[in-house]
Amino acid sequence: MKTKATLAAILLATGLFAQTKPSIAVLNIDSKGVVNTSEEMGYLVRLEVEKTEVYSVMDKYEVSEVVKANTIDLNSCYSKSCLVNAGKLLKVDKMLSGSVERFEEKVIVSMRIIDVATGTIEKNETTEYLNLPEIQKMLRVSVKKIMGQEPDPMMVKLLVDYDVPVESPKNTLRLNGPRMGFSSTLGKAGEILTNSDKSKGGFDMFPVNFQFGWQQEIQYINSGNFQALIENIFLVGGLESGKFLPSYTPLLGFRFGKGAWEFGFGPTFRLVQKAQGFYDTKGYLGEKNEWHLKNEWNSSDTIAGKPTTNPYAIESRLDSRGNTEISTGLVIAVGKTFRSGYLNIPVNVYVAPRKDGTTVGAMIGFNIQKKKRVQ
Predict the structure, then answer these.
(1) Per-domain residue ranges for the chain?
(2) Which CATH number is 173-277+316-371 given?
(3) How far apart are CA 314 and CA 306, in angstroms?
(4) Comparing C-alpha atoms, which of 150, 259, 273 is closest to residue 202?
(5) What is the pLDDT along the chain (375 residues), one digit of tens a residue?
(6) CA 201, 205, 208 angle in degrees (round to 5)?
(7) In degrees rounded to 5, what are phi and psi of residue 16?
(8) What own/partner pairs with CB < 8 Å and gap ≥ 24 does 165-170 have?
(9) Would you say the CATH fold of 173-277+316-371 matches that of 19-159?
(10) 213: closest CA among 184, 189, 249?
C-alpha cells in the first residue's frame, strides 16, 4: 500500500508540474537567403523548443487547424500585433517568432518571445553564425539561449566563435593546403626554355608551365584586422613538358582587413640546368651572337682572323646540356583569401623578376582553418 501511495504521489506531482508549464506556439520563421523555407524553419524551431521542456509546445496540427479556421497568413504574420492576435486565437501564453537571414559570410538568427496577455516582447535573442550548412544546430543554440539554458560550448565554438581573432601571442593559426596554378617565363630565359633545338641548349618546353604542390602557413601575429605570417611553398612544375622542376619559396606575408587581402615577398630556390659558355658576337664559330659552350672554343684552330685564345667572357646560362644546380631569386606576391565557412580559398598572383627573364604566375588553393591549442 505504501508503494502504491508513493507512485500515485509521483504521478500527481508530475501531472501538476506539466500543468504549471506555460504554453507556447511557434508559427513560421522568416527565412531569407538560406535553403530552408519559412515553414521548415518553423518546424525545426518548434522541435528544438520541445527539447528544452521549458514550455508546453502547441502541436503543429492544432496550430494548422486554428490558422485555417481564422485565415491567418503564416507567411506574413511576423509583426507583434499579428502574433498577439494569433496567440489569443490559439489560447496560448506565449508566442515565439523570429528570422533566419544570410548576409555574405554570416547567418543571423533572431528570435523573440511575446507574452500574449500583455502584448509585450518578453525576450530577445540574436546571434551571428558562420555561413555553414548547419541550420538546425544554429537554431538549437539560439533556442537554448532564449530559453535561458546553456548551449553546448563546443557547438558555439564551431558555429559562432570559430574565426574570432586570436589576440594571445601563445596562439597561432596554421593554414595548410594544396596549391596549383601556372607560370610563364618571359625574356631571354623564356626563349631558351621554349627553344626546341636542344643542340643549342633549348629545353623544348611549353610557354606556360603548370605547377602544383603544398603550402604551409603560420601566423605569428594576429591582431584584429592585421596578421603577419610565414608561408612555406613547395611546388613541382614542368611535368607537361616531361620535366621535373621543384622549387621552394619561403615568404614573409601580411594580411589586412576582413577581406583578407595579402601581400608577401621572399626568396625562391629552384633546381635548374645551367652551363658555362659564351656568346660569339663576332661570328668566329659561325653565325654572330650564337651561344656556345665553353669547350667549343678550340685554341688550336688556325682559321684566319680567329684569336688563339677565347676573347669572350665566360658566363653561366640556362642550358639543357648543363649541370643541375640551385638557382635563387625574389618572389613578390599579392592575393586575396575567399572564405566559405571553415574553407579558405586563397588566390594569388606573383612575379619573380630576373635579369635574364621575369617569371609571372597565378596560384589557387584551399585549406581548412585550424586553431592551435594553448599550452
Answers:
(1) 19-159, 173-277+316-371
(2) 2.40.160.20
(3) 17
(4) 273
(5) 555 555 555 555 555 444 588 999 999 999 998 888 999 999 999 999 999 999 999 988 888 888 888 888 888 888 889 999 999 999 999 999 999 998 877 899 999 999 999 999 999 999 998 888 888 999 999 999 999 999 888 888 888 865 444 344 444 445 688 999 999 999 999 999 999 998 889 999 999 999 999 998 888 887 767 888 899 999 999 999 999 999 999 999 998 876 678 899 999 999 999 999 999 998 888 888 899 999 888 765 555 567 778 889 999 999 999 999 999 999 999 999 887 766 788 899 999 999 889 999 999 998 765 544 433
(6) 135
(7) -65, -40
(8) 165/222, 165/223, 165/224, 165/225, 166/222, 166/371, 167/222, 167/223, 167/224, 168/374, 169/221, 170/374, 170/375
(9) no
(10) 249
Residue carrying the nine cell digits 602557413: 217
CATH topology (fold) of 19-159: Rossmann fold (3.40.50)
